From TrEMBL:
One of its GO terms (molecular function) is monoatomic cation transmembrane transporter activity. This is Di/tricarboxylate transporter. GO terms for biological process: potassium ion transport. InterPro entries: Cit_transptr-like_dom, DASS-Related_Transporters, RCK_C, RCK_C_sf. It comes from the Bacteria. The chain crosses the membrane at residues 7-24, 30-49, 94-122, 134-154, 174-194, 402-435, 475-499, 505-523, 571-591. Residues 207-290, 301-386 form the RCK C-terminal domain. It is found in: Membrane. Its main location: membrane.
Length: 594
C-alpha cells in the first residue's frame, strides 16, 4: 500500500473508533475526520467542501422538510386513528402501529414517519395501561424496514442510487427498492408480532417536565362552522366519535349558555366549551372544522401575517403577581391591549364551564396564548406569566390537509418518471410546502436535522479519499480474494453482513458512503453485476437493530421507551439474522449477479 492509501484507511478507522467511543457527537467526529484528511493531504483544499454542495445533502434536507409537512397535515395520523379505534388487544394494536409506520416510511423518511405515529403509540399505551416501550422499539424497527422500500425512505438508498449512477450512468429508480424492501418488511412485521415479548415489560421513560407539572386537560372554546361533520349530531354521538377523550362542558347558543345533555343536537354556529388533552382538542378542532373563538377575534393576527410575522402558540403559567389574576380575558381585552388571544385554560382540580372570555383567571392557571412569536416573550412578561417547558403544541394552528401529501406525490411521480432529477424535485417540493403555508418556515428549519447534513457534507470528501487514493480498490480486492471460493449468494451475504455490522458504529449514511464504492469494486473484481452488491449494502446499512445510536429512529425511541442499551440486541439480534437469511435470496432473485 502507498502512504496516501494507508493514511486514508487510518483516518477512516480512527473515525470509526471515535464513533464507538461516543465522546463526541457524530457530526463533530465527521468534521474532525475532514480536518485530519486535510492535514494529512489525502483531501485537497479545493475538494474539502464540495460535499456541502452535493445533491445528496439537498435531497436529505428536502426530504426532512417534506416529512415535517406530511406529519403536520395529520393525514397519516388520521388514517391510523380510524383503524386503531376498532382494535383493542395489545398484539393487534402492535400490528396496526408497526404496519402503519412501516408503509408510511415508504412515502416519507422513516424517522419522520416514526415521529408522526409515536403519539398514537402513547395514546394506545395509556388506554391499555401498558408501558409505551411495548410499542416503540418494534415501531422503530418497522420504520427501518419500511424505509428500504423506496428511494426516499432512508438516506442509504439515496446514496447507493448515486453510486450506481457514477458507475453505470443510471441511478436506481424510486421503486427499484420495493420488491426486496416489501418482502423484508412483511417478514419483519410477522416477527415483531410475536417477538415483542422479548422486550422487558418494566421499561418506562423518565417523566418529562410537562408530565411533572401534570398539564393534561385544557378547556377551549370553538364554534361549529358551516360544513362541520358535528352538525346535527347529538352530544353523545360527538363525544363517542372522539373516543370519549373529549368533554363538552357547556354550549353557547344565541348568546345563551346551556347545560349539554346527551341527546342535545348540535347546530351550526353553536359555540362549545370543550375539555381534553391538547392533542385531542387539536385533532377534534381540525377534523370537525371548528373555529376557535379566540381566532375569530384576531384582527391583529391578520396585520401580523401581512407584515410577515409568524403566528404561534405558547403555554404559560400565571404567577402570583400577574395582572391577569381576578380578571377575565373579555374584561382585560387581551387582543386589543396586548395583541394576544387566550385560546385555552387548564385549572387543576376544577371543571371549567364558562366561556373563555368570561372565565376569571387565577394564579397557577395554565393558559395557551396565541400571537406573533417574536412578540410573545415580551407579552408574557407584561402579563406576569411564565412559559412552561417547550413541547409540541398545535392547538390554534391551521392544517393544510392534503396539500403536503399532494406536493410530495407530484415530486415522487416526477422523479419516478425521470422528468427531473431527485434533488430538483424534492428541493422544489420543500419550497412549495413552505410557500403555500403547509409547513411554517420556523417549523421547516426545526425539522431539518442539521447534524446529519453537516456529517454528510464533511464525510463525502473523506470517504471519496478511499477511491482517489486507490484504497477502496485494495480493500475490495482483499474482500474478493476472501470470497473467491464462495458462491454468489455467499458473496452477497458477506457484503450484507459487513454493512450491517458496521452501521451501528458508523451511522447508516456514513456506512454507505464508505461501503458502497467498496462493494461496487468488489463486484467488478468477481466479475458480477454490481446491482446485487449495492442493494445488499443499502439493506445492511438500513437495518441497524442492535444499538440505539446507529440510526435516528432507534435514538428517537430510546428515551421515551425507557430502554437500556442492551435491550436493542434482545429484539434486534434475531431480526438481523432473519434479514440476512431472507434478504440474501431476495436480492439475488430480483437482482441477478450475472
Amino acid at each position: 500500500m502507498t502512504l496516501p492509501q494507508i493514511l486514508s484507511v487510518v483516518t477512516l478507522v480512527a473515525m470509526m473508533a471515535m464513533f464507538v467511543w461516543g465522546r463526541f457527537r457524530y457530526d463533530v467526529v465527521a468534521i474532525l475526520a475532514l480536518l485530519a484528511a486535510l492535514a494529512l493531504g489525502i483531501v485537497s483544499p479545493a475538494e474539502a467542501f464540495k460535499g456541502f454542495s452535493d445533491d445528496l445533502v439537498i435531497i436529505v434536507g428536502s426530504a426532512l422538510v417534506l416529512s415535517g409537512a406530511v406529519q403536520r397535515s395529520g393525514v397519516i395520523e388520521s388514517a391510523q386513528a380510524l383503524v386503531s379505534r376498532r382494535v383493542k388487544r395489545v398484539s393487534t394494536q402492535l400490528v396496526v402501529l408497526t404496519a402503519s409506520v412501516g408503509f408510511a416510511s415508504a412515502l416519507v423518511k422513516n424517522v419522520g414517519a416514526l415521529a408522526m405515529l409515536m403519539p398514537a403509540a402513547f395514546q394506545m399505551a395509556k388506554k391499555n395501561k401498558t408501558p409505551p416501550s411495548v410499542f416503540l422499539m418494534p415501531m422503530s424497527f418497522a420504520a427501518l424496514l419500511g424505509g428500504l422500500m423506496t428511494l426516499v425512505g432512508t438516506s442509504p438508498n439515496i446514496i447507493v442510487s448515486r453510486v450506481r449512477e457514477d458507475m453505470i450512468g443510471k441511478p436506481f429508480g424510486m421503486f427499484d427498492y420495493t420488491p426486496v424492501g416489501l418482502c423484508l418488511l412483511l417478514m419483519g412485521l410477522v416477527f415483531l408480532r410475536f417477538g415483542y415479548r422479548l422486550l422487558p415489560r418494566d421499561r418506562r421513560a423518565t417523566p418529562t417536565m410537562g408530565e411533572a407539572l401534570d398539564v393534561q386537560r385544557y378547556v377551549t372554546e370553538a364554534t361549529l362552522a358551516e360544513g362541520s361533520p358535528a352538525i346535527d349530531e347529538t352530544i353523545a354521538e360527538f363525544v363517542a366519535r372522539h373516543d370519549h377523550e373529549i368533554t363538552v362542558t357547556s354550549i353557547l347558543r344565541a348568546g345563551m349558555r346551556s347545560i349539554p345533555l346527551a341527546d342535545t343536537v348540535l347546530r351550526e354556529r353553536d359555540t362549545l366549551i370543550l375539555g381534553g388533552e391538547p392533542d385531542v382538542l387539536e385533532r377534534a378542532i381540525s377534523r370537525d372544522k371548528l373555529a376557535l373563538t379566540g381566532q375569530d377575534r384576531d384582527k391583529k393576527k391578520k396585520k401580523d401575517e401581512k407584515k410577515g410575522s409568524e403566528i404561534g402558540v405558547i403555554e404559560a403559567v400565571i404567577n402570583t403577581e400577574s395582572p391577569l389574576i381576578g380578571q377575565s380575558a373579555g374584561r382585560l381585552r387581551l387582543q386589543e391591549r396586548y395583541g394576544v388571544n387566550l385560546i385555552a385554560v387548564s385549572r387543576r382540580g376544577e371543571r371549567l364551564v364558562k366561556s373563555l372570555g368570561n372565565t376569571v383567571l387565577r394564579a397557577g392557571d395554565v393558559v395557551v396564548l396565541q400571537g406573533a412569536l417574536d412578540e410573545l416573550p415580551e407579552k408574557l412578561r407584561d402579563l406576569g406569566a411564565l412559559p412552561l417547558a417547550e413541547r409540541p403544541l398545535r392547538l390554534g394552528s391551521k392544517r393544510k390537509g392534503l396539500l403536503a401529501v399532494v406536493i410530495l406525490g407530484v415530486a415522487m411521480a416526477a422523479t419516478a418518471g425521470g422528468l427531473v432529477p431527485v434533488a430538483v424535485a424534492f428541493f422544489a417540493a420543500a419550497g412549495l410546502v413552505i410557500a403555500t403555508g403547509a409547513l411554517p418556515v420556523r417549523e421547516a428549519y426545526e425539522h431539518v436535522e442539521w447534524p446529519i447534513l453537516i456529517m454528510l457534507g464533511a464525510l463525502i470528501p473523506v470517504s471519496e479519499s478511499l477511491r482517489t487514493t486507490g484504497a477502496s480498490d485494495l480493500i475490495a480486492t482483499w474482500l474478493s480474494g476472501t470470497a473467491s471460493g464462495l458462491p454468489p449468494w455467499g458473496a452477497v451475504a458477506m457484503i450484507l453482513t459487513v454493512a450491517m455490522a458496521v452501521t451501528p458504529f458508523l451511522n447508516n449514511a456514513a456506512t454507505v458512503l464508505v461501503m458502497a464504492p467498496i462493494a461496487a469494486v468488489f463486484a467488478r473484481d468477481l466479475g458480477y453485476h454490481p446491482d446485487a452488491f449495492l442493494m445488499a449494502t443499502a439493506v445492511g446499512a438500513g437495518c441497524d437493530f442492535l444499538t440505539p445510536i446507529g440510526h435516528q429512529c432507534n435514538t428517537l425511541v430510546w428515551g421515551p421507551g425507557g430502554y437500556k442499551f442492551q435491550d436493542y440486541a434482545r429484539l434486534g439480534a434475531p431480526l438481523s439474522l432473519l434479514v440476512i437469511a431472507f434478504g440474501t435470496p431476495l436480492i439475488l432473485f430480483f437482482w441477478p449477479v450475472t
